[in-house]
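User: I'm curious what two different proteins look like when written out as structure tokens. Can you demonstrate?

Assistant: Sure. I'll show them one after the other, since each token string lines up with its own sequence. Here's the first protein:
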Amino acid sequence: MDIGEIISDSVKYPISDWKKLLTLGILFLLSFLLIPVFLAIGYAFRALKATIAGFDELPEFDEWGEMFIDGVKVFVVTIAYMIIPLIIIFAGIFTGPYVYGPTLTDVPLLLQAGGSIKIVGFIVAIIFGLLLTIAIAHMAFNDGQLGAAFRINEILDVIADIGWADYIIWYIVVIIVFWIIGSIASSVIGLISHSIGFRASLVGSAVGYILLSLFVYPYLSLFYFRALGLRYAYQ
């Protein structure tokens, strides 16, 4: 399956069942309560598992306890992989002032010092992000076993089977499409809020949040995990 087929399929996948898409949206809408956000992540992960298993339909909303646990697992794996890049990035943000102190007069040098560390952090984040993406898919392939996400040799073998060049191209294209869809959707929602006189108001912000939560966030989540599942399944 080439990248064009993966993107085409993934774009249509979330809207194959509007009822389930909206149900996922309600979970995102209630994510400030914390538990629903893990349920939402767990459902997206379930869609990933279903895709790898060869199913084309959106999965059912059932076995909520398992769905919640899966969401927590994805969160834990994400934190575990990204904690080092985040530490480096934050070190870059705070290193300048703490290293040079208040007597520093060469501001460009200070910015350069912190900026270099942040650049390193972003590079490390990209590398770890490549591993994290397949790690989550590998966990899904192994029926949600947490340990499977940390079998680095197996994860590297999967990437090798896909082909590093093909994988990186897929990674970049998915990010670009993800960003384009998100940007267009956000702009449309902004126009809707503006057209009914809600621009720059508390009510307008609430309307925007509701529309984003109900439609955009669930769509993008399912698009991403569907694309990942297809990439993993068709190595």
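Here's a second, unrelated protein for contrast:
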Amino acid sequence: MTYLLIGLALCTIIGPAFLLLPSNRQKAQMGLRAKARTEGLQVELARIDDPDPEPGKYISLTGKPLDPILKCVAYRIPRKRRMDWRKRPIVNWEVVRRRGAKDDFLPVDWQWRETAPETPSLRLRTVIAAGLPKLPPDVVAIEEKKYQVSAFWQEWGDETDLAAVVQFLKTVIAEPLFEPEEDDETDRE
């Protein structure tokens, strides 16, 4: 009987410690995040407004409506700033995934949500539109704020999906944010 009590006490003490160990999914997510950091991306947990909230998803157990906040992971990469970046207008843009959204310039289920008076260059918008279909289906938004391009991803995929996100972000930051001006041409000569 004494051994049985000692065994139960040990299980009671050690059992909760096993609950703290990461699951296989959490280990895979940690691996994706570590790989993204080696590619030069910043990774952080984020909470954003759900761009496509499902009816009934954001209701508490008591029936009270909740704010449609989506928990995801932001994969960010900074854009190199031009020498005259302080003289340029601020360009903040956001592209969100919404079922049934139609935009003349973007693929189906994607929609622009611009947050500043200035819009990105036509070349940049074309690159964004061409790259969106290659992203994993659980990427819910892409944005640029304060010269950082972010992909908000729920991480249901694997390393192939991570490679698509990294490639998309690197392609976007390689494109100019503004339309080329005449004085830009003279600066290069």
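A detail about the second structure: Residues 2-19 form the longest helix (18 residues).
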